[in-house]
């Protein structure tokens, strides 16, 4: 029953485990739990485990398996094992700031599908537009090209070069001042994942990881190859997955189908890993306001698109934004992602019927409203595309020279710092201000002139 200890950024990550299967329950108790039974060991495949993050210090612990005291090998004092974690205690900072300035989102299988250079070769290009972060869709071994049906969470798909190539990418990105966000599909696994196969075969441990009953099972969107995980029983194993990539150097995680995962588990995961989590939430993000650092703000994306297409009024759009300002924690809203499109929506230029001015107005919003801009690869060359999978076309690298002006426009947007505290509607205009800047968006052509940036449907100017 050995413990495993990892260290990263002044914290220790300790894996407590027992090999004996409990009939009722197994706990690890000690000085870090106030000697209470708050941490239950869960089935982790080969054993029962719990992950705990701890600062440097001297700790006492032991296991209770079905009420029986069990000790590890090693030093013992007063009936408890002794765990000494050396080092200087450092301040652990909570999120009270913007985590990322601007994010470049990459659908990994389509970014270089004509083998026109690797992602590592394109980091300088991404940085030149002002992005300080890249977000990668899943990179794991999986059942399909999008890799949201994972069969191995601990290894990069061989088609992407494996773990060695990913480690080199992390180093190169960090050398350029670029953070890396990894997409984690932990709401479900692939149906070919060994754990799910064992669950279908009746393994009592793995069966609890899933919701299997009456010859059927819970799934994502009724997709049979995506069986839903039960966080109450698979949670400790998931912590091990996240810790693996965190120790490799990943800076933050996007949680796929975050709205399908209990907020309590995401809060626990974030507290353990001490790195940012951004949840995918289509709809009202209120329940996740204290569980994660931010969400993909689809609640703002839909009215943005409808407003600029003339389908809703400025007042209707303003009501959505005002509600978020009133209900959501400010830091949460600042770190939630604003976008004009994603790999799950039609491309913005297609939704705007090729209207480049409306497209640019949408960009102005995601860079100047309260939030963090997430830019989907290919938008800088106005890559077109309808619903999935048409929105996942190969990046057109030949067009990058043709759209230099748009790339410069994006870079200028990155330089703006606007933190509005209220929004108003005036006829067809949406208006919001900071102490020194004002932004106006319209869904009718106004041909704004002057200011810092301006176009037919937008203007950013000094107050």
Characteristics:
463 residues; 12 helices; alpha+beta; hydrolase activity, acting on glycosyl bonds; TIM Barrel; 25% helix; eight-stranded parallel beta sheet; 2 domains; O16G_dom_2; 29 strands; glycosidase; Immunoglobulin-like; 27% strand; Ig-like_fold
Word description of this protein:
With 463 residues, this protein is of the alpha+beta class. The chain folds into 2 domains: 4-85, Immunoglobulins (Immunoglobulin-like); 103-187 and 229-419, Alpha-Beta Barrel (TIM Barrel), CATH 3.20.20.80. 25% of the residues lie in helices and 27% in strands. The chain contains 12 helices and 29 strands. Strands 22-21-20-15-12-11-24-23 form an 8-stranded parallel beta sheet. Strands 3, 4, 7, 8, 9 and 10 form a 6-stranded antiparallel beta sheet that branches. Strands 25-26-27-29-28 form a 5-stranded antiparallel beta sheet. Helix 5 (231-248) packs parallel to helix 6. The model has no long low-confidence stretch (mean pLDDT 93).
The CATH topology of the largest domain is TIM Barrel
The separation of the N and C termini measures 65 Å
Instruction: Please report the number of helical segments.
Output: 12
Cross-sheet strand order for the largest sheet: 22-21-20-15-12-11-24-23
Rg, rounded, reads 24 Å
CATH class of the largest domain: Alpha Beta
Largest sheet: 8 strands, parallel
Shape: elongated
Per-chain topology:
Layout: E1 4-8, E2 11-18, E3 26-30, E4 39-40, E5 42-43, E6 48-54, E7 57-65, E8 68-70, E9 76-77, E10 80-85, E11 103-106, H1 123-128, E12 133-136, E13 140-142, E14 150-156, H2 162-175, E15 179-184, H3 194-200, H4 204-207, E16 212-213, E17 216-217, E18 219-220, E19 223-227, H5 231-248, E20 252-255, H6 263-273, E21 277-281, E22 294-297, H7 298-308, H8 314-327, H9 330-334, E23 337-338, H10 348-351, H11 356-368, E24 372-376, H12 404-414, E25 423-426, E26 429-433, E27 437-442, E28 453-454, E29 458-462
Parallel strand pairs: 11-12, 11-24, 12-15, 15-20, 20-21, 21-22, 23-24
Antiparallel strand pairs: 1-2, 2-6, 3-4, 3-7, 5-6, 7-8, 7-10, 9-10, 13-14, 16-17, 18-19, 25-26, 26-27, 27-29, 28-29
């Amino acid at each position: 029953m050995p413990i495993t200890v990892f260290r990263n950024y002044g914290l220790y990550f300790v894996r407590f485990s027992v090999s004996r299967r409990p009939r009722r329950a197994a706990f690890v108790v000690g000085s870090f739990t106030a000697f209470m039974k708050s941490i239950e060991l869960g089935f982790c495949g080969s054993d029962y485990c719990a992950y705990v993050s701890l600062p440097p210090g001297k700790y006492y612990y032991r296991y209770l398996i079905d009420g029986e005291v069990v000790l590890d090998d090693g030093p013992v004092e007063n009936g408890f094992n002794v765990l000494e974690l050396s080092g200087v205690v450092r301040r652990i900072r909570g999120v009270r700031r913007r985590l990322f300035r601007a994010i470049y989102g990459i659908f990994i299988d389509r970014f270089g599908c004509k083998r026109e250079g690797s992602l590592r070769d394109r980091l300088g290009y991404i940085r030149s537009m002002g992005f300080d972060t890249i977000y990668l869709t899943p990179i794991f071994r999986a059942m399909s090209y999008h890799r949201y049906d994972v069969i191995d969470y601990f290894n990069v798909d061989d088609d992407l070069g494996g773990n060695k190539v990913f480690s080199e990418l992390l180093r190169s990105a960090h050398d350029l001042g670029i953070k890396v966000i990894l997409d984690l599909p932990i709401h479900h696994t692939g149906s070919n994942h060994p754990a799910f196969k064992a669950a279908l075969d009746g393994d009592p441990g793995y069966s609890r990881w899933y919701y299997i009953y009456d010859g059927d099972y819970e799934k994502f969107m009724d997709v049979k190859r995506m069986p839903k995980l039960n966080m109450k029983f698979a949670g400790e194993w998931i912590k091990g997955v996240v810790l693996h990539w965190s120790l490799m150097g990943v800076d933050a995680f996007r949680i796929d189908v975050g709205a399908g995962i209990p907020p309590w588990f995401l809060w626990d995961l974030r507290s353990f890993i001490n790195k940012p989590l951004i949840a995918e939430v289509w709809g009202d993000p209120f329940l996740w306001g204290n569980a994660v650092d931010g969400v993909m703000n689809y609640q703002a994306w839909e009215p943005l698109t409808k407003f600029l297409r003339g389908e809703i009024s400025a007042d209707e759009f303003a009501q959505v934004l005002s509600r978020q300002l009133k209900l959501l924690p400010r830091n949460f809203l600042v770190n939630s992602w604003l976008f004009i499109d994603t790999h799950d929506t039609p491309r913005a230029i297609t939704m705007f019927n090729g209207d480049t001015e409306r497209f640019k107005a949408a960009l102005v919003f995601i860079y100047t409203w309260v939030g963090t801009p997430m830019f989907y690869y290919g938008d800088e060359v106005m890559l077109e595309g309808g619903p999935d999978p048409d929105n996942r076309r190969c990046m057109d690298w030949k067009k990058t020279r043709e759209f230099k002006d748009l790339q410069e426009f994006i870079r200028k947007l990155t330089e703006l710092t606007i933190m509005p505290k209220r929004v108003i509607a005036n006829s067809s205009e949406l208006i919001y201000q900071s102490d020194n800047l004002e932004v106006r968006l319209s869904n009718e052509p106004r041909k704004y002139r002057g200011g810092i940036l301006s176009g037919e449907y937008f203007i950013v100017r000094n107050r």
